[in-house]
């Protein structure tokens, strides 16, 4: 059924009620009518009857559905809050029900691949930029939506759920998307900045996860705060070079969604990426860690994608390269650190 402008729906939709989706849905519900989508019938029933989602508190005013069509019919603004590994599938499920009037903002800090049929990261010889998609690029590729934005910043969901003060960036080529995001989310406890460099903001949120895994490893090895400061500063420089190579601006990396989130994630035991590094340093294997984590640590897959890209593009990104060897090539962490300490970094800041 085609929707006319006069019948434009008014609720705000949230797709995915995991850790971050639940936190954002609750914040949106403070001043808006909200409907959430969960793929499992039992989660929908849990939300609608006892107002929790897998035990996470959900504002009692929030309604849930497992029908993408109902969500798209009821809402004109949708927040996609699912991990990157599921993003293409989820967007394809929603695509038949989306119209150009729908405004979409996503909060996903991961990448997808745009490969040919039967191809995978293991089989492609080279990984070019055109074969890597940010989540806004997935939405634009898979749907008729045009007004697309992302939400990124230092936003550990546990802290947001406790009502602790924080800020985020809404990035979009369309000022209207930024203004809507600010109108919906801004509060006394939550500041919302705008940025027109959506690719740079998405990449900032994606790339900081790599450095956060390394920060967790440094903490797990008990190497101290000097080493952490060294990693964060070299990590920021690496993020700038990678982001520029992938189409983002320097300014976005040194802003809230880049350096702001980098500092938070590199210091928080509530960060899943930090936790992966910490547990690796304590001697667990990657398989052991991932099989016992309930929530997604996007940085692991991001390391694989970025490592393949830099090898193709001929870029040096020593932290990512060494982390790839630790995660996927059995290099002991101590050796990776030894290698990094000998790496001939000589210029402090070389991107301005
Ligand atoms: N948690 C945080 O502090 C923050 C997270 N982010 C980003 O947000 C994104 C989501 O993270 P987070 O909420 O923590 O992840 P979680 O692992 O907590 O939750 C993921 C959610 O996505 C749903 N989901 C997974 N696969 C599918 C699918 N195929 N179809 C429909 N729904 C699906 C899950 O549903 P089900 O229960 O059915 O599996 C679950 O509700 C990530 O990219 C993360 O980097 C960004 C900022 C902060
Ligand atoms: O991006 C986040 C906070 O801004 C959450 O980080 P983790 O995915 O590592 O938990």
TrEMBL record:
Chain sites annotated for binding NADPH: 19-20, 39-40, 109, 157, 272, 296, 298
Domain Glycerol-3-phosphate dehydrogenase NAD-dependent C-terminal residues, every copy: 197-337
UniProt-listed Gene3D superfamilies: N-(1-d-carboxylethyl)-l-norvaline Dehydrogenase, domain 2, NAD(P)-binding Rossmann-like Domain
Active-site residues (renumbered): 208 (proton acceptor)
Molecular function, one GO term: NAD binding
E.C. number: 1.1.1.94
Keywords recorded for this protein, A-Z: Cytoplasm, Lipid biosynthesis, Lipid metabolism, Membrane, NAD, NADP, Nucleotide-binding, Oxidoreductase, Phospholipid biosynthesis, Phospholipid metabolism, Transmembrane, Transmembrane helix
Catalysed conversion reaction: sn-glycerol 3-phosphate + NADP(+) = dihydroxyacetone phosphate + NADPH + H(+); sn-glycerol 3-phosphate + NAD(+) = dihydroxyacetone phosphate + NADH + H(+)
Glycerol-3-phosphate dehydrogenase NAD-dependent N-terminal domain mapped to chain residues: 11-176
Subcellular locations according to the entry: Cytoplasm
Biological processes annotated in GO: carbohydrate metabolic process; glycerol-3-phosphate biosynthetic process; glycerol-3-phosphate catabolic process; glycerophospholipid metabolic process; phospholipid biosynthetic process
Chain residues that bind sn-glycerol 3-phosphate: 109, 153, 208, 261, 271-273
InterPro entries: 6-PGluconate_DH-like_C_sf, 6PGD_dom2, G3P_DH_NAD-dep, G3P_DH_NAD-dep_C, G3P_DH_NAD-dep_N, NAD(P)-bd_dom_sf
Known function: Catalyzes the reduction of the glycolytic intermediate dihydroxyacetone phosphate (DHAP) to sn-glycerol 3-phosphate (G3P), the key precursor for phospholipid synthesis.
NCBIfam families assigned: PRK00094.1-2, PRK00094.1-4
Matching PANTHER family: GLYCEROL-3-PHOSPHATE DEHYDROGENASE, GLYCEROL-3-PHOSPHATE DEHYDROGENASE [NAD(+)] 2, CHLOROPLASTIC
Protein name stated in the entry: Glycerol-3-phosphate dehydrogenase [NAD(P)+]
Organism, as annotated: Algoriphagus lacus
